[in-house]
Design goal:
The chain is mostly helical. It is built from five helices and no strands. It has one domain. InterPro entries: GtrA_CellWall_Glycosyl, GtrA_DPMS_TM.
């Protein structure tokens, strides 16, 4: 296995066009996450954490499909098996972003008293950086191209 210098990995992360695509897809995902959070929590009456986890997982599926077809379409094998592997990796990677976003959500709502949709938006923003970095490096391996 060939070792890729840190400098090359960092350079691959700051590709402006791919970063902007990831932001656009993230905006769609955040909209899905936020809509489902409000629907599950305020309308269906589910607990805040359950609502957050369900909305986030559905939004991750939506974002994976869009990222696979658009943002990272030129990276990786296009076989069904490779896509399933990337989906599994993506879900694992996004777990870090989900933990980050959920901790921020709970901290801001329970400690600071911030309105939960606003706290969720802040959490999504913080989790974005975790997700972008590890999705780029682990799921689609942009530094290998």
């Amino acid at each position: 296995m060939v070792s890729i210098p840190f400098r090359d990995r960092l350079r691959s992360l700051v590709a402006a066009d791919r970063l902007m695509q990831f932001v656009a897809v993230g905006t769609i995902g955040a909209s899905v996450d936020m809509s489902l959070l409000v629907l599950f929590h305020s309308v269906a009456g589910l607990p805040l954490v359950v609502s957050k986890l369900a909305g986030a997982e559905i939004s991750y599926l939506v974002m994976f499909v869009i990222n696979e077809r658009w943002t990272f379409s030129s990276f990786g094998d296009s076989s069904f098996r490779a896509r399933i592997r990337r989906f599994g990796t993506s879900n694992g990677v996004r777990l870090g972003g989900l933990v980050t976003a959920t901790v921020v959500l709970l901290t801001l709502t329970e400690t600071v008293g911030l309105w939960y949709p606003l706290a969720n938006a802040v959490g999504i923003g913080v989790g974005f950086f975790v997700n972008y970095t590890f999705e780029s490096l682990l799921t689609w391996r942009v530094h290998r191209k």
